[in-house]
Request: fold
Amino acid sequence: MAPDPLTLPAIHASHIGIWIADTHGRVQRVGRGEAIAAVAATPHVLLNATLTGDRLGYPELSGLDLLELFAFLYPARFAVPTPAGLAAAAGLPPPKSEDDVAAFLPRAAAAMLASIDNPDWAEREGAWHGVEALARQRWSWAPLVQPRLARPDAGERWLFARLPEWEEQSPRGAPRQVAIDEADVAARLDRLTGDGAERRPGQQDYARATAAIFAPRERKDAPQMLVAEAGTGIGKTLGYLAPAKQWIDQSAGAICISTFTKALQRQLSRETERLYPDAATHREKVVVRKGRENYLCLLNLEDALQGGFSGRAAILAQLVARWAAYTRDGDMVGGDLPGWLPALFRRNGTTALTDRRGECIYAGCPHFRKCFIEHSARAATQADIVIANHALTMVQAARPRDSGAPATRLIFDEGHHLWDAADSMFAAALTGQEAVEIRRWVLGPEGKSRGRRRGLAARLADVASYDEAGDRAIQAAIAAAAELPGDGWLGRLSENEPWGAIEALLVAVRAMVYVRAVDTRTADSGYGLETELADPEPELVTAAASANDAIEALLRPLMALGKRLEALTEDPPDWLDGQARARVDGARHSLGTRIDTLGSWLSLLGRVGGPADPDFVDWLAVDRYDGREFDCGLHRHWLDPARPIAEVVYRPAQGVLVTSATLRGGGHGSGGWTDADIRTGARHMDGGVQHFAVPSPFDYARQSEVLIVTDIARGDLPALAGAYSRLIEAAGGGALGLFSAIRRLRIVHSRIADRLARAGLPLFAQHVDPLDTGTLVDIFRADPHASLLGTDALRDGVDVPGDSLRLVVMEGVPWPRPTILHAARRAAQGGSAYDDMVIRARIGQAFGRLIRRADDFGQFVMLSPSFPSRLLSAFPEGTPIRRLPLDEAVGHVAAANVERRKSAFAAFSPS
Reply:
């Protein structure tokens, strides 16, 4: 029996109204002013204070947020942050309508608090200490939680006592050279897909083809390489896992699976459970790796708990501490920390709880043996399968650090993103923000900055006290880093009062950008400006020479320090025990990264007034957001970023698979492999690259429809908003709306959200709702009546099979932005053909969100009066494509919705 609801008032706000429930559960609809007065006078139970505050227009809203209570009671558990999601988590029936939500919230609170009395409550350990600390921070739930918790005995372990320590293990040996048999691969695939499952010939063919990358390579720097396109629904994950596991078992080797999104990393981890059904074995054999900035830093958390955070941020730190005691791996971004938790705190403090500046002191940290990052790194050296992202895979190939034999077989899933990942990884940017980060890395906190001093001197204090040359290098680096931009640099730039050579350079860059940037439309919009680094003004050339000297003054002592650290490890003194060596090795790795950065800056400065390098594109930029400048500097990107992939990542490997559903320009089986070889870097390999394609098994002619709307003029925002509203209403929700500009997304959302809400169709949006993208997708997936608006991240990263996603609407053809970088690549890669390749890939990815399984049906609407016929190959062969006015398109969508409801009714009706 459900406990009695709390005798507390509650509030619920949506796009169609505001409701308040009094202490007796009586609900009344109220106006915004009355609601604000009520919550300002008395704390109310609510669900997501940040979102509710936005709906009220009252950002200072505080109260008894059920999501905070959930995070305390059930750390590292998942719940969709909606009334229905919370009801499911609490084992309650969901509210039937918006009118019922306010009365439901106290009932949900009572049910959650009652779990404290349950002897089987799994997260009891640490709760008493946690709520006592939260009470000192005046957490609103503390008076309701404290009386229900008995003080534990003295033996209860708190966070840092209960975390396990990692242990050193012997390095993993190199794999045996073996050849796997195709029949064994086919048999293993049958076992993985399950007894009695229908055999999919396409999946079997794909598995046999991918087995080729596990054959021994025939010559150095020439891996067995396959570029494979597997249409949606083939089951490519199990298709490559079957030969991979066969090779692992026979060779005792390890593989690395690399992907682009954190969501797919989670999905791949779940798929590998078929290889290792036992949970403990799976944790040992499969490790998900991310960059260190994704993981909780225990030293930063300790600092926050001991006074480094105050106010609401201190409450966040305590809730994160609760989570840290129960987390699987300490991953704060896409792991088991609820994505909605940081968003509840407007001054999001989670970034200060990770190591984003490379200030780790490694073995000098008191929590080094329990560090989540070190756990992950060491587990990866012993794992059979490491699931990483493209960026980390490239970093580790460029700057190898982990001990033991590296994975000799690389599988790049979502391979169509390799170009973009490499474009970021191998780029250089000498900007104010980047220079400030280097300064902080060397000097540590300055002025009124809080926290431990973890500059270079603090991290290497023992080296400085032992090695005189090392100490001199550290002090010289500190003196040189003081010349880099510091706090207030943006203001000094705008006032033309630079301090130091780098700020003087940035002043010259800024002046040249504002003089030469010719896109007045972009300038008026308040967003970034850029100009080519060609024929620079004399002031810029002079400033670049002075900046070059300042950077060399920092680079020289850092390189000298690197040599001293290397000498220490080669001829270790008595005090250099295991932990000290780990600290020195960590410092060497971090030092190498900064030396590489400074070297790239010098190369970029050499371009100012010097000859252009045909392999690179260089330009100057002022970065702005909503009219506010936030960065400024010089940029360099590879003209073809796939070249360093081939050199740095592919060549050292024994076998490489690059795979995706849309490798050939989004063409879904049409055309040759030119686009794929360009985007993946396969064209830079010296022969031996194999290609394989298998089409999707889905019946796109029956399961999908493309509607190209011909009467919505580009730039007509009222008409665009009206089209979105009518199409979403006709579909009954379940729509994903995709935009190429945040500004248009916000305008459309503001015009249609209330109207759709009145029709019972919730609308959520990136860059509008104060929720992370993963949480927005979770909400969208859980409610078939909800719709979601977003930008590029949703075009590529959403996997919503079934009825919750049945309509994709694009605001128009996703033309590439006419940047300097794009113009250079367009000229080098065939002009309009390059544009078409990019556009087809984007459309193909967007269309790919629709049909995720054999019983899906979906419609794709393109709001473009002049959609080029040459781009129709972006859609799967046989897909019905119609050009028609909006009224007819709405009719098609409405008719499909009627058929959907008829099918659903028939499925649930008695025979």
Notes: The longest strand covers residues 628-638. Residues 520-524 have pLDDT under 50 and may be disordered. Residues 538-570 form the longest helix (33 residues). DSSP finds 37 helices and 23 strands in the chain.
